[in-house]
């Protein structure tokens, strides 16, 4: 039984690492995002990532300098997987 929980904890840590890598590769348009689709009628839209808020597990941001607004839970998913995996491995090690 102990080996099963070790594998579950290690799997969660691996998943957290993969989600963090996915965030880094796809930045600034994060996965699982719901975004507004505002048409910009100018020469060039303002650029750059803009952070708005972190509320109830959702990260609010703008990938294009404030023209569109996006919300995503992906950061909370990565942190949750990391926390659960660490806790499971810590408890398994503590029981030995």
Which residues form runs of ≥5 with pLDDT under 50?
Answer: none
Distance between the termini: 13 Å
Question: What is the tally of beta strands?
Answer: 4
Shape: elongated
Using only C-alpha atoms, the radius of gyration works out to 18 Å
Strand content: 15-25%
Characterize the biggest β-sheet.
4 strands, antiparallel
User: What are the secondary-structure elements, in order, as H or E?
Assistant: HEEEEH
Structural class: alpha+beta
Residues in helices, as a percent range: 40-55%
Q: What count of structural domains?
A: 1
Quickly count the helices. Answer: 2
Q: Please tell me the overall pLDDT.
A: 86
Please list the strands of the largest sheet in the order they lie side by side: 1-4-3-2
Model description:
This protein has a four-stranded antiparallel beta sheet. The longest helix is centred in the N-terminal third of the chain and has 25 residues, at 2-26. By secondary structure, it is of the alpha+beta class. It has helices at 2-26, 74-95, and strands at 34-35, 50-55, 58-62, 70-72. Helix 1 (2-26) runs antiparallel to helix 2 (74-95). Strand 2 and strand 3 (58-62) form a beta hairpin. The protein is elongated, with a radius of gyration of 18 Å. 10% of the residues are buried. The protein has one domain (2-95).
Structure in a nutshell:
The chain has 96 residues and is of the alpha+beta class. The chain is built from 2 helices and 4 strands.
